[in-house]
Design a protein that fits this description.
The protein has 289 residues and is of the alpha+beta class. The chain folds into 2 domains: 132 residues, Nuclear Transport Factor 2, Chain: A, CATH 3.10.450; 116 residues, Nuclear Transport Factor 2, Chain: A (Roll). It contains 6 helices and 14 strands. The chain has an 8-stranded mixed sheet. Strands 10-9-14-13-12-11 form a 6-stranded mixed sheet. The longest helix has 19 residues. The radius of gyration is 18 Å and the shape is globular.
């Protein structure tokens, strides 16, 4: 199955890239692609002008909105008082998409503001499940230098029970990559990450690619700087065939908790992470020890 990754600017298509995967088959039909993109544009325009009635038609029942301050609200809360999108109507914004059979990931950005929208196929309709904002550099410090050497949670145990075989396999993949992070082992981390991987975090001043994270792990290995990942506090997983959306809250060893949205995709029989958006919850009290 072809997994398309498309980059679009506010003025039109800039480039189209794809992984060399054989056989080459569209991951989503042309008519379906047009449908989800039309729904996305309708959402962006309606949210920008505060049209809650139109927005309500597009949201999944389990929809969540996470703003750049890390506040996460439900569908019901969003429709009572519709938040103002950080990018407005996204005029002039750069856009990148990751397309799967039942999930369309749309990432838009302008300056240091990045927005992730995860659309899911429910029957014959596309519904928006996740809206997630990140303001780069909003939080001082890096999540990749915790100063902790041992990783119990999430490397060995997590406070989440998988509901099916796909979730179990994803957790195993996640624990393996986080063990690689803890041990500064890029070779152990990389097999669990998609080549088109994109990571956006309040704790970083620029987007991170797979190559960026590999370079960081290699540098940490040279400096022997401890980097155990932040423990998981809670999680939800949403299964859509060859894609699983994972929303989580993590509590770093010091500092404020972080809301994370991840997209996992099944590729060549294995589950790999392709997107990670991480927003520090600014209103939360920081952990000091």
């Amino acid at each position: 199955m072809r997994r398309s990754v498309t980059s679009v600017s506010g003025m039109g298509i800039l480039s189209v890239g794809f992984l060399l995967v054989i056989p080459i088959v569209r991951g989503i039909a042309v008519t379906e692609e047009a449908s989800v993109l039309q729904a996305d544009r309708k959402f962006v325009e309606s949210a920008a002008r505060g049209d809650g009635a139109t927005v309500s038609e597009l949201l999944d029942t389990e929809f969540t909105w996470t703003d750049a301050e890390g506040k996460t609200i439900s569908r019901e809360e969003a429709l009572v008082a519709l938040p103002k999108p950080a990018l407005g109507d996204e005029a002039g914004a750069h856009q990148v998409r990751q397309t799967r059979s039942q999930v369309e990931a749309i990432m838009a950005d302008r300056d240091n503001i990045h927005v992730l929208r995860l659309w899911v196929k429910r029957g014959s309709s596309w519904r928006l499940l996740v809206y997630h904002e990140v303001a780069l550099g909003r939080q001082q410090g890096s999540a990749h230098s915790s100063g902790v050497t041992d990783c119990e949670n999430p490397c060995r145990t997590i406070p989440y029970k998988p509901k099916n075989a796909a979730e179990q396999a994803i957790i195993a993949s996640w624990q393996a990559l986080e063990t690689g992070v803890t041990n500064h082992n890029a070779a152990a981390w990389a097999p669990h990450i998609a080549d088109e991987f994109a990571m956006l975090s309040s704790a970083n001043d620029h987007p991170l690619t797979k190559a960026d994270r590999i370079a960081a792990l290699n540098l940490q290995k040279q400096s022997a700087r401890a980097s155990a990942p932040s423990p998981l506090v809670s999680a939800q997983m949403f299964d859509f065939g060859d894609s699983v959306i994972m929303t989580c809250m993590h509590q770093p060893y010091t500092g404020k908790p972080v809301h994370v949205s991840r997209l996992w995709i099944k590729r060549d029989g294995r589950w790999v992470m392709s997107i990670s958006f991480q927003t520090t919850i600014q209103t939360a009290s920081p952990k000091t020890s």
